[in-house]
Structures are given as C-alpha cells and as structure tokens.
Design brief:
By secondary structure, the protein is of the alpha/beta class. The chain contains ten helices and twelve strands.
C-alpha cells in the first residue's frame, strides 16, 4: 500500500475507525476518505454503491458496526444481526463490484464458539455453538469475513480480515446501560456514590487490547503482500472481570464498594485469542493494560470536559 493510496475508512467516528484514521495520518497517508452517517447510510446498498462509484478508493477499511455490551446485545440480537449484516454485505460487496482492489474487514473474537479451545485459534471458526448473548453480532461478522474470503478466492481480490479481542481507548462509548465492560466500569467508578453494582460473579476471564494497538495491526496487515484471510489480534494478557474492576477502581481513584449481582450473566467463561499467526509475521502489541487504563481514564476525562464524550 503506497502513501498515495486513496483509503476509505468506514466508521471513522467510532473508536476503531478514528484510531485507524489517526494511525494512517501519522504514517503519512493523506488521501483518507470518510463519510458520516448523515452523508452515507451504510444500511442502504444503493447509496453505498453510488459512493464507491463516485470516489473509487484504492483501499477500504471496514470499521463500521453497531456495537454494545452484553445487555445491549442480548436485548436486541435481531437488530445487531440485521444492521451489522447489512453494513458488512453492502461495504464489502459494493467495493468488489466497483473495483476496490484491497479491503480490510474488522470483526471481533466473539465470532468464535462459546466453548472454543483457549487460546482461540483462527481454525476454531464455525466449530461449535456461539455465545447466545451476542449471537446476532457474531453471525453478521462471520458473514462479512466469509464474503471477503469468497471474493478473494473467486476474483483474486486482496480482501482479508482481522478479529480483535475486547477493545478500549479514546473515543469509546461510555453508556452505562449499553456499553462494553471496560468503558462502563470507568464511567461507573467515576460517577459512583458509595457503591458500584456489577453484573455476574466477576469470574469470567477476558483479554483487552488498546485501540491504538489494533490500529497499528491494521496498518501492519495492509502492508502485507499476501496476508492470511483471517488473523486474530490481541494483547495476550488475561484478567478476570473482578480483577479488571479493581484495576479500574484504582485508575479512577474511586473509593466505591463493589457489589456483584450474580443473577446477571457472566457471558462467555473465558476468551483469549491465539495471536501466534500475526506475531509470527512481525506484529506485537505495545500498550500494557495498566498503562492503557491510565491513558483511557485521562482521555475519558478530557472528552467529558470538552463535551465530546459518547454516552
């Protein structure tokens, strides 16, 4: 991918898309094309097709998605399936039809079976039942990566996918009711008055990756002449949700008491992705969880002060 490449980043206002745009700009790429939702509805196939025909980007990075935590996903699996399926199908198919030679599709490690072997290798895909709480989102992402795989096989297009683990960092959504676990914890502890009530038992084990590390992985993957169809991206660091809560409590300086509601689900018991493949090609993460938490709490407070925070 040369510096003069015209690159379309779908979802540039989200946490992932904005990180990818920052990384591209820092690396010297200046011809970056973006569209907000009011300018381009990714659920509208005709609009997406017209956009590609008009702009003719050389490269597309599909970072757009409807995302949310356990509560949001489990309450609206149908919407998460429909909207993410439409985004994936429209952005990938129209790119192929309009001559976009390279595309990077971003998914999530929730595509893997609930009881996949740990750490989860890429070959675990479609080897067992999915986690029910986010099944709709997972199915849509599986469709997107499979469409990339089929188009590459049938048309020779360099379409490939990255599956990141749980992400956090600047530009996250801090909606307490519907957000992901880490930004929700930051918001809860920062606004706590006495105690913080959390879902589940805290026993579930998770892996977290700073979004700037994911952005570096995106540029790395786009620089490969013959990338694998699918690669996991993760930090390799595991932590229980209980340990994470204590770490966020410390990072925010909160003195709130933590109360666990065991009547609520924990989600998948353990989810650590096997990153042997991408590391063997030369990429490694650089931001540890402790450092990343401090950076994220600082950016959260800056966004809160500036009135730009997503809630």
């Amino acid at each position: 991918m040369v510096k003069s490449s015209k690159i379309f980043v779908a979802g540039h206002r989200g946490m992932v898309g904005s990180a990818v745009c920052r990384a591209l700009a820092a690396a010297g790429f200046s011809n970056i094309v973006t569209r907000g939702h009011s300018e381009l509805d990714l659920l509208d196939p005709a609009a997406v097709r017209a956009f590609y025909e008009a702009e003719r980007p050389d490269v597309a990075v599909v970072a757009a998605a409807r995302v949310g935590g356990i509560g949001a996903n489990s309450a609206a699996n149908s919407r998460f399936l429909y909207e993410n399926e439409m985004i994936a199908m429209n952005t990938v198919w129209a790119a192929a039809e309009c001559g976009v030679g390279r595309l990077l599709f971003l998914g999530s490690t929730c595509i893997y079976p609930r009881m996949a072997p740990q750490p989860i290798p890429e070959c675990a895909l479609l080897s067992g039942p999915l986690e029910k709480t986010n099944e709709g989102y997972a199915l849509a992402k599986i469709s997107g990566l499979k469409l990339c795989e089929f188009l590459r096989r049938e048309r020779g297009l360099k379409y490939h996918s990255l599956m990141p683990t749980n992400l956090y960092g600047p530009g996250d959504n801090y909606d307490i009711e519907h957000g992901h676990v880490l930004p929700t914890l930051i918001r809860k502890f920062d606004t706590a008055d006495g105690e913080v009530r959390l879902w589940g038992t805290g026993s579930a084990v998770r892996e977290f990756l700073h979004v700037d590390d994911l952005a570096s992985a995106c540029l790395f993957a786009l620089g490969l002449d013959n990338p694998p169809d699918l690669m996991n991206v993760g930090s390799g660091e595991e932590v229980t949700i209980r340990e994470l809560a204590e770490a966020v409590k410390s990072a925010t300086g909160s003195s709130a008491k933590i109360v666990w509601d065991s009547s609520k689900p924990d989600g998948t018991p353990r989810k650590l992705c096997d990153t042997t493949l991408i590391r063997s090609l030369g990429w490694v993460p650089r931001i540890g969880l402790k450092e990343g938490l401090a950076m994220t709490v600082a950016s959260y407070r800056e966004e809160l002060s500036a009135g730009t925070i997503r809630l």
